[in-house]
Known about the structure:
Blueprint: H1 2-39, H2 48-70, H3 76-91, H4 95-99, H5 103-107, H6 116-120, H7 124-132, E1 134-139, E2 145-150, H8 152-163, H9 189-199, H10 210-220, H11 228-238, H12 242-249, H13 254-269, E3 288-289, E4 295-296
Antiparallel strand pairs: 1-2, 3-4
Protein name: LOC107374416-like protein
Amino acid sequence: MNEDENGEKKAKRFLELLENSWRNSVSVNAHQTIKERRWNQKDDIPLTKDVIALRDHLRKLEDEAKAELKHGFSLAASKNETVLSQLIIFNKRREGEASRLTLDTYKEANTSSLNEDIFETLSTLEKELSKQLTRIEIRGKRGRKVPMLFTDQMKDSISLLIDTREEAGIPAENPFLFARSGGMTNICGSDSLQKHAEASQAEHPELLRSTKLRKQVATLCQLLDLDEQELEHVARFLGHDIRVHGDFYRQTDKTFQITKISKLLFAMEQGPGTLKRKNLGTLELSKCEDITGSSHNVSQ
């Protein structure tokens, strides 16, 4: 009995320590360690030239597959992959959102034209884009409604895929637009993107992933000097709220801090006159001191 009582006391003592001390002694320190390990990790975004290389590679494959399909050869799987990958790249969508787009959602989407009064307020370029692009709302992360844009070329390719579903061996009961032959599942967008990125002769194909592409949008938005409302529109298109878009994605960009924030820091050392009526884009410096201690003129 003494051994049982001692064991019970030790167990109770352990549970008390676990409840009272775990958070401060273990959990907080563990979370802080994880955060610190991420501070200086390399977190690159795709190069524009690599995105273009992948896009051109996919378009070439798409044209080849389209020609074969029109001549009766079944290359539906290949064409499915190329169109799906193009949708992910163009819209910067999460691959799962695009992959699980259903045939019914695509067919039943509201594709009516813009309100006439709103249309008249648009620029010439914006009017042309509104005629060439179709917007469809799909199910996003956590059931959130997110938009996806389709070009005329994408719609033509999808129409051909729909018309040849039976010949491609896709069961009529398969609900997905980008369906696998002989099954009830959808094509995996991440696998497709990875395969074609490696075949595209991109310099850094490992960066051509949906998550990295989304970070590229958020990071490059900083160079546009977007106001709060414009930034919110971009965030909503990506399926984020403004807090996530700003606090998480922007913190990965070292270019902005090195080129813009450092310019502000140097300007502050030269006196308040340098800052008057300036923003980070128009701020100029007469000189700055580099790490060797020498001064040089940097005014443009």
